[in-house]
Description:
- Helix content is about 30%, strand content about 25%.
- The protein is of the alpha/beta class.
- The strands form 3 sheets. The chain has a 9-stranded mixed beta sheet with strand order 1-2-3-5-4-8-9-12-13, with helices on both faces. Strands 6-7 form a two-stranded antiparallel ribbon.
- It has 9 helices and 13 strands.
- The model has no long low-confidence stretch (mean pLDDT about 95).
Amino acid sequence: MKSNTSAGTIDPQHISVIEAVRGSGIPVRLMYIELIDGVYAPIGLRLPPGPGPFPLVMFASGNGGGGMAMVRDYTQNVGWTQEQFLKAGYAVVWLRYRAEVDYAYDKIGKLVEDRRQNRQLLNRGPLEYEDVISITQYLKTLPEIDGNRIGYMGMSHGGEMALKIASEYHGIRAMVASEPAAHEFLRLKPDNTARINPATGLLDVEKMLMREANKVRPRITEDVAVARVQPIDTPIFVQGRNTDELQGIFRVCYDLLVELGKDAKWQSYEHDVHGFVYVRRNDKGDYAPDAVQIQAVNDSIAFFDRYLAA
């Protein structure tokens, strides 16, 4: 990887900066990727040793926002999981995308692109999962990346995004949806554990209790959820967490995939941290993954190996 920011070589349309990664011999290429509407999203790309092109796994965590500062923080301080993928021969990239727009996916319909006065015209603003599609399409053009062997691993809202992406886009070969907070995708009707935030008027689902699949299933809008799952042809590994407040939602996502004949895998883990698959440095500045985190990441790599092998 070569930075284009040395004197006299800056390409303003393709800015990238090489930065060393703490405790690793593999640097990160910090880049800005043009999205469908011409704005840019930051990413951090790393390549394993040796000649490419490489299979690639894209990593997403939670809601959007945070910009390049978050890409750098996750690369430097939440990088253990990526290091395991790099050792397994995968290129890896942390993604950032715009913030979630509350229930916009459920209200405003499919993005349509047209032309007016020979310029781009959209029927609405793009949403965060559509940013990931734009980034994917760009990464497929890089000579270091095998565009036919692209994976995606999303956690929490990033896990719900896996379902949204797979429902509309078929350019990703396999996905891990870890603790997918997919209440919007399923059009879930919350109970009284979800409240309206009086300061904003938006629904607060942070304390929603949906631990049991048999509680969640009657609350989803079945015909809508089925219509969204039906187009999916991407293999998806749904990862649950036994004590999570939304465990019932995670399980119903898997159940629907299987009922509709999709290629899906389920595994639930016993851990007390939401987002446990992404290991953060401890107070001493070290990575100290526990046995469950090691197992979950090994399971994830094995899943991608099934579909992204050469």
